Amino acid sequence: MISTLVLLFLGSILAFWISAVCGGGASLILIPILTGLLAASFVPFSLTIGTAVSSVSRIIVFRKSIHWKIFYWFVPFSIPAVLLGAWLLKFLNPLYLQLLISFFLIANLPQILKPKTAPDETGTPDPNYILACLGFFSGFISGVTGAIGLVFNRFYLKYGLNKEEIIATRAANELFLHLFKLVVYICLGFYSELALYLGLSIAFASIISSYTIKFILPHISDFVFKKIGYGSMIVAGIFLLSSSFVQIIDKDNIHISKNWVVGETETTINWRESSLVLEFELDDGLEIERPIQPIELPDHLKLKYDSLIQKYDKILIEKVFRFREPVSYEFYCYKGANLAKFEFSE
C-alpha cells in the first residue's frame, strides 16, 4: 500500500508538471493509473480530490492572470452538468466515455505537425454562448470521469490566452466544479477509503508541482507551450484509448468467434449477454444478425413459428439487417442432428 502511494505521488508530481506546462491534463494522465488500482466508479472521487487542491494552489500562484469573463460564463452552466454526469454514473460505464475522449484527444495530431510559419488559429475569442456550451460539456465530462484535463484545451488556446492565463483561468473555472463534485460523489456513495488515500496523495503532489512550476514556465515560449499542449493531448489520448479498450473487453466479456452454420461462415461478436452475427456474401453484401426471442417476431411470423415448432425440437431465430434492404428473419430449425434454415421477410 505504501509503495503504491509513493509511486502514485511521484507520478502525480510529474503529471502536474506536464499539466502546468501544457495548460492541463494531469487527470487524463492519471486515469489509466488509477483505473488499475480502483473500481472505475471510484476513480472520479480520487481525481477530484487531487485536482481540487491543484486548482487552489494554482489560483494562489497565478491569481493575477485569471480571465474573469470566461469564468463568469463557464461556471454557472457547468454546475448542473456535473449533477447530470454524476447521476449518469449509476447507469453508464465511464470507460465508454473515456474511450470517446481518447479519440477526441488523438484527433489533435494535425495541430502538432503544423510548422512554426503556419497561420495561428489563436486570438479569436469565441462568442459567449460558446463559453456557456464549453462550461456545460466540461461539467458533464468531469461529472462522469472526474477529469476535464486536456479535452477542452484547444478552446482556451483559440481564445488567445497566454500560458499563465490558461493555467489560472482553468484553475478558477474547475475549482467550483471539483468542490461541487466531491459533495455529489459522497452523497451518491462513489467513494472508498482507498480512493480517499490515493486522492490525498495526488493532492499533496499537486501542491509541490504548482509551487515549483512557476520557476520553469517563464523559460518556455508560447509556441513551445502550445506544441507541448497538443502533444500531451495526443499522448494522453493514446494511453486512455489503450487502457479503456483493454478494460472494456475484459469487463464486458467482448470476444469474436467464427462458426460454420448451414454451409456458411458466420462471425459472432459477443458483448455482455448479447451477441451480433456478421456475415458477408458476394451477392448479398454485409449482413448483421441479432438473435431474438419468438415474442419479438411480427404477428404473421409468430404464426409461422407456432406451426414449425410442432415439427422441430428447437428453433433459433435471428433478425437480419442488410444495407438498403428490408429486414428479414432467419429460422434455424433443429430436428435431432439435422438442421434446416428458413428465411422470411418482415
Automatic annotation (TrEMBL):
Family according to the record: Belongs to the 4-toluene sulfonate uptake permease (TSUP) (TC 2.A.102) family.
Organism this protein belongs to: Leptospira neocaledonica
Entry GO CC: plasma membrane
PANTHER family documented for this protein: MEMBRANE TRANSPORTER PROTEIN (PTHR30269:SF37), TRANSMEMBRANE PROTEIN YFCA (PTHR30269)
Membrane topology of the entry: Multi-pass membrane protein
Transmembrane segments: 70-89, 95-113, 129-152, 182-208, 228-249
Keywords: Cell membrane, Membrane, Transmembrane, Transmembrane helix, Transport
Name this polypeptide is given: Probable membrane transporter protein
Subcellular location, record wording: Cell membrane
